[in-house]
Design goal:
538 residues; mainly alpha; two-stranded antiparallel sheet; membrane; cobalamin
Amino acid sequence: MAAQSSLSESVLGWSIFTIILLVILAFCWIYIRKFQSRQESEVVSTITAICALAIALITSALLPVDIFLVSFMKYPNGTYKEWAANNETRGQIEDTVLYGYYTLYSIILFCVFLWIPFVYFYYEERDDNNVNKCSQVKNALKYTIGFTIVCVVLLLIGAFVPLQPPPSQNSTQWDKVQYLFEELGSSHGLPALSFSISSLTLIGMLAVITYTAYGMSVLPLNLIKGTRSVLYERLENTEDIDDVEHQIEKLKSKCKDGRPLSSRDRHNLQELEGKLQVLRRRGRHLEIAERNCCTKVGSALRPFKILLGVFFILVALLFIVALFISNLDKALHSAGISTGFIIFGTNLTNPLNELLLALQPVFPLDYILITVITMYFVLTSMAGIRNMGIWFFWIRLYKIRPKRTRPQALLFLCMILLLIVLHTSYMIYSLAPQYVMYGSQKYLVQTQMPSPGPGNTTFATTRICDADAPEDQCTVTRSYLFLHKFWFFSTIYYFGNWAFIGAFLIGLVVSCCRGKKSVIEGEVEADDSDLSDDEYVH
């Protein structure tokens, strides 16, 4: 009976995960097809982008499953359910989640260090018309080997970084070497994988500070402010065209008597003709947008967008407050830098952590909320990348625009999202540390009270799982073990959270100061060709 109950609980958790998986695959296909260039799209790059984006979202969906399974092992009164009373059964369920993390994190390493770099450099080499297919593959492999070497180095460093006290100074060299190999074998390679993933998470932290923080402010404010009127934009664009045409005629009138234009006038004429070409293309796009039914539907849904924007900005502020309280709690109650600012449980009231614990009795509200939080970070990251483009320091590499994003830009987008998702787990832990560590688990505390008669009376009280709980009474999520394998990474993540808060506030100010977006935002740029307009003919 216990075995059947165990099976049913596991099947429930993984069934929900399977449904989410199907939704993720459908979303990835629609998202990539929306942004990819129709002129430059290729099957290989499309499949790679869809798979990489799906892996990023699936990995983020595994955290709620992890929390769900450890929470469902216990009743609300703190006792284990019949099927989870056996340590061996609990271990098997925990190993299932652990193997899930192993698999997905290994796939992420494969994508970041092998698959995506190879496809990216393959298409970079394709831009050179003089290179044949064989040379493309050879050159792409040459560059990819460099990424592979970095991955191997990270795995080796992680495998041999000692997590236990080393042998004494009096030990022989062989004892020390044997100790390192025992460290590697005893953990089944967990430190090696964890170190590699944590190294990538540091890059993901920079992407979160850059893109996610800005996306959390720009997405809701864009929904609230809306876009400019199409009619007004067309009128304004027509006036600009008339003004530029008048300036061009004025310059050309200088050479009617046969005199050549000065170099300055020729330069100005060239700039004005380029500007006129962009304005005419802009006019065509505005005309298409005015006839587009999506524009009319968007205008009808304006009140809903405002409400959604207000909701998103309130959620963003809730996250920032929860993150600030969590970081303040670590600063006041942790052992400091040398321990990675790790604390067990919460000492200050964290609103998001308390909300998740309050929703726990009504299944599956807490599970739905943690899933929504996870997907919120991913969607705001997408919004941040979409609005900023892909940058390398001060150099803008690619723009992310509907129907005209190059294959290399989509691959870059998916790689950035893979790295962001890795750091998202730590961000969610920072928002609700106690819930992410233990879920909704509780345990019983036996207390003895004096009784009127002989002896003492034993009372059992229920407490939420924390660091004071007996080891066999509370199960820690596998995600927590991955996040805190190395203390120095936790320290860097802690300071990264402060940088994230600062970046969000700066992005909020910038987004508030900006005006409404154009209804054709990002569709017309000066460096586009007229041929690209064919992609917008409906």
